[in-house]
Design brief:
single chain; alpha+beta; 5-stranded antiparallel beta sheet; 24 helices; 11 strands
């Protein structure tokens, strides 16, 4: 591995014009594809294997033309103080609005509140339900404008009017904080390298990689039904790993220059050593993201594969374009320890300082001093790190899962204000009605079955209202709408869904008719359950595959085991922080969280996948330096110090950059993106600075040589991937023969 990458790095450095041309051509091709691609259509949200999805499919089959997946809107009216919605002027304004809405080209139906019993008991609030022929993402802008204009006309008549539902669904935006995150990354890179040129390389390559990845996603969005969130998450992860991978290689390149090697040779050795770590770190991220397919939620699978593709692009760019750009940069990228004009020329490299005087010893850097401290007191550091992460993980015991609805929107949005008005006029459960689908095709008396199901549901706890059964044309299937007494995301509503399903099981045993519960609330409950059930198998699959991969990389059993256990600590602590902020409301104002509630159902499994992959980045880069020193003859404790001497500064910079990029997405208008951005940022903090910088060296110091133990039979069976670059010691600094061989084979 190291020898091949060494040759590849030298080839890319020497043939830099050709390499740069290829990547610019790919970026241009992806950009043209994105610009010419048709706009993304509807994003189907199907959850195979759930009762809610089964009921939804049955509705499409038995109620053809009903546009079961069509967009909906609830136009909510509130009368001025002291007036009622039944007053003549207010009633006339509402009826005018209903009439205007019914004239829309994509409108399937509009329910008049005065004919559909949609006026509150005190007469102050009413609503009109609008059903469209197409989904919210497919609605034309003219249709959305007509909806907003109709609402504005009613406001002009003196009414308070708000619009809920998914008809006004907008593409989420990330806000200015994303740019701030990139700016922070740039500052960290400048401080790390002391040069604008060296700092600009990781940023440039990361932006090119993300540009290719996101443009490709945009080009394929219509054909593959990719949602807007897919490209945002691919951008988030692609930026973070793209900067980090390039940072690792540029840092190793500068270290090779400091040892006196020529620039082409230094580029080859940087790609051969740090590049090997990048390959395996990237593989762990890809495994974690592609592994999301085991959950069997198509939307989550697409998100994972798209993000994995962007990570793969980041790896290839780091191995090829970074050495090519280093060739263009020439002497403007200084050896490690040397400073350019930006931060002054006064600081010398360690080799220069040693040559200057035999008596003076170069001052140990912060990473070296910290590693020596940990090696002297490993047990105390280990206990402090574990206890600290354990304390941060305590809130995770109170984790409640759910999917966001209009109640989690900011109070500044009309969707949230419509949600609050409906809760005020009709009760909190009105925002999450349950749709019960009764399939009596195999029954002798379908109408009697419909009545029995309706009566059974009326007798259940937490039920406010049950509408009469609405049969289809064939008379063998009916829908019943149930209004709970509690809000959609509450435990009481979840219990009601299970109670209806239990009652349906008894009815099926007696009559053969099947009773299914669907609707957005039931779908959210089923999604949460499906994700909970998939978490353990997913964790076993991803951690197991990565564990095997790390055994190959480190040729050790205990080091990969320690890496996996450390990851579990950091991800539990991160989940605890997410619960504290988004569920309990701690620091919610600082994070822009206007409404606390259940944590998004996808958060735990998505965090497990992404954080595991990113955590292994630091594990591979930091510990391969230790492994490299140990293989070259150093004692285990000294190898830990050496690993920190060369890797701590880079890993620290990489972690700060990744945190800044993820934190930049906290400003997103999409609650899911905001939560993921915060969760990943805090998880990187815990994993990089507590687990990898404290717990890892403490454990390795305690284990000593046992850390690198591997059964002899397994050692013989495993392939030698040579991540440490041991094979490069046999290569001369010219490398010409090897380069010619690589040119022939490629």
């Amino acid at each position: 591995m190291a020898t091949f990458l060494y040759k590849l790095g030298r080839l890319a450095f020497r043939r830099r014009h050709f390499v740069a041309l290829i990547w610019v051509a790919l970026l241009t091709l992806a950009g043209v594809g994105a610009a010419s691609a048709p706009p993304a259509g509807t994003t189907s949200f199907s959850i195979p294997g759930t009762e809610a999805q089964k009921a939804f499919d049955l509705l499409e089959e038995r109620f053809p033309g009903a546009a079961a997946d069509g967009a909906t809107a609830r136009v909510v009216f509130k009368a001025p103080d002291g007036e009622k919605m039944t007053d003549p002027d207010n009633k006339a304004a509402v009826e005018k609005t209903v009439s205007d809405l019914a004239d829309g080209s994509e409108v399937a139906s509009v329910a008049d509140p005065y004919r559909g019993n949609a006026v509150s008991q005190d007469g102050t609030i009413a609503y009109a339900s609008v059903k469209y022929d197409v989904s919210g993402m497919e609605l034309e802008e003219s249709t959305k404008d007509a909806l907003e204009d109709a609402a504005q006309q009613a406001r002009d008549a003196g009414l308070t009017v708000e619009v809920g539902g998914d008809a006004l669904q907008a593409v989420p935006h990330t806000g200015a904080t994303e740019i701030i995150g990139i700016a922070v990354a740039a500052v960290v890179l400048v401080i790390t390298f002391g040069s604008l040129v060296a700092a600009g390389l990781p940023l440039l390559t990361a932006l090119i990689g993300v540009g290719i990845g996101v443009s490709s996603i945009t080009a394929l969005a219509s054909a593959l039904e990719l949602g807007s969130t897919t490209s945002i998450l691919a951008m988030m992860i692609g930026l973070a790993v793209g900067i980090d991978y390039a940072l690792f290689i540029v840092s190793r390149y500068r270290a090779e220059l400091a040892e006196g090697r020529e620039r082409e040779e230094a580029a080859g050795r940087a790609v051969g050593t740090a590049g090997s770590a990048v390959v395996f770190a990237g593989l762990t991220v890809v495994i974690a993201l592609v592994g999301l397919a085991v959950v069997n939620i198509p939307m989550l699978t697409k998100m994972g594969i798209a993000a994995a593709g962007t990570v793969a692009i980041a790896v290839v760019i780091a191995l090829t374009m970074v050495p090519a750009l280093l060739g263009y940069a020439g002497r403007r990228v200084k050896p490690a320890g040397a400073k350019g004009k930006l931060l002054g020329r006064g600081r010398e490299s360690a080799d220069q300082a040693t040559e200057k005087t035999e008596d003076a010893q170069p001052k140990a850097n912060l990473g070296t001093r910290w590693a020596r401290f940990v090696v002297r007191r490993p047990l105390a550091v280990l206990l402090l790190g574990v206890v600290g992460l354990g304390a941060a993980a305590v809130p995770a015991a109170s984790l409640e899962l759910g999917l966001p609805d209009d109640g989690s929107q900011p109070t500044s949005t009309t969707q949230r204000r419509a949600y609050d008005l409906l809760s005020e006029g009709f009760g909190p459960g009105f925002n999450g009605p349950l749709m019960v689908v009764v399939d009596a095709k195999g029954s002798d008396a379908p109408q009697q079955v419909f009545t029995d199901v309706s009566d059974e549901i009326k007798g259940l706890k937490d039920v406010v209202a049950v509408t009469p059964p609405q049969p289809n044309k064939g008379g063998d299937t009916a829908t019943i709408t149930v209004i709970p007494d509690s809000k959609p995301s509450s435990v009481a509503t979840e219990d009601l869904v299970h109670a209806i399903r239990d009652a349906g099981a008894d009815i099926k045993a007696d009559t053969g008719a099947e009773t299914l519960v669907t609707g957005s609330t039931a779908m959210n409950i089923d999604v949460s359950q499906k994700l909970n059930d998939a978490l353990l198998p997913y964790l076993v699959l991803v951690v197991g595959l990565a564990f095997l991969l790390l055994i190959v990389v480190f040729r050790s059993i205990l080091v990969p085991l320690k890496a996996a256990l450390g990851f579990l600590l950091s991800v539990m602590a991160a989940l605890g922080a997410v619960v504290a902020v988004f569920q309990w409301g701690w620091l919610s104002g600082l994070m822009g969280v206007e409404e606390t509630g259940p944590v998004m159902s996808m958060m735990p499994i998505f965090m497990v996948g992404v954080v595991f992959g990113l955590a292994m980045d630091y594990e591979v880069f930091l510990v391969t330096r230790m492994r490299e020193a140990y293989v070259h003859g150093e004692q285990p404790s000294q190898a830990v110090v050496t690993g920190f001497k060369h890797g701590a500064r880079v890993v620290t910079a990489a972690a700060v950059i990744m945190m800044a990029v993820f934190a930049g997405f906290i400003g997103s208008s999409e609650s899911m993106v905001k939560m993921i951005g915060f969760g990943l940022a805090i998880a990187v903090f815990f994993d990089a600075f507590v687990v990898r910088m404290a717990i890892v060296p403490a454990v390795l110091a305690l284990l000593g040589k046992k850390a690198w133990w591997l059964p002899k039979w397994l050692d013989r069976a495993l392939p030698n991937v040579d991540v440490e670059g041991e094979g490069l010691r046999t290569l001369g600094d010219d490398g010409k023969d090897e380069d010619r061989e690589l040119v022939r084979t490629t």
